[in-house]
Write a structure and sequence with these properties.
One of its GO terms (molecular function) is endonuclease activity. The chain has about 140 residues and is α+β, with helices and mostly antiparallel strands. It has a single domain, classed as Alpha-Beta Plaits. It is built from seven helices and four strands. It has a four-stranded antiparallel sheet. The two termini are about 15 Å apart. The relative contact order is 0.24. Bound molecules: inosine-5'-diphosphate.
């Protein structure tokens, strides 16, 4: 089943010059890039994106991190794209959860600055694509 997923290469991934490496892994996996843009997230977009985490201890630092520097936002498309990218990304904590071979497992150390985001369900993907790429929503 073809799906779309919203992916972010977070500001640490851009600052550490891993954009090419991460896009290369996405392309090698076989996912299509249907939207791609370097931008700096506003507070409004960041807060809406991470609304489910509001109130958690790491939330203020997360919003600060995501809005402070440019990130790459993308929409990927392909069979089971949501799970496929989550597999490429690895678990949230790059040391405790992400396995070697995954983006976070190979390139990350920090549970907050963990390089990438990928939608976790069809509903999240629809919501996040509408937030980051409104022109694509519903297409
Ligand atoms: P995910 O990005 O693997 O889907 P979520 O649990 O949805 O993980 O958390 C969203 C983001 O919030 C994480 O990618 C990470 O940047 C940040 N985060 C989650 N848990 C922690 C934590 O315990 N400490 C610091 N940051 C965290």
């Amino acid at each position: 089943m073809t799906e779309r997923t919203l992916v972010l290469i977070k500001p640490d991934g851009v600052a550490r010059r891993h954009v090419g490496e991460i896009l290369s892994r996405i392309e090698r996996k076989g996912l299509d890039i249907v939207a791609l843009e370097l931008r700096t997230a506003t507070e409004e977009v960041a807060a809406a994106h991470y609304a489910e985490h509001e109130g958690k201890p790491f939330y203020p630092g997360l919003i600060e991190f995501i809005t402070a520097r440019p990130l790459v936002a993308a929409v990927l498309e392909g069979p089971r794209a949501i799970a496929a990218f989550r597999q490429l990304a690895g678990g949230t904590d790059p040391v405790e959860k992400a396995v070697p071979g995954s983006i976070r497992g190979d390139l990350g150390l920090d549970a907050g600055e963990n390089l990438v985001h990928g939608s976790d369900s069809v509903e999240s993907a629809e919501r996040e694509i509408a937030l980051w790429f409104p022109a694509l929503a519903g297409s």
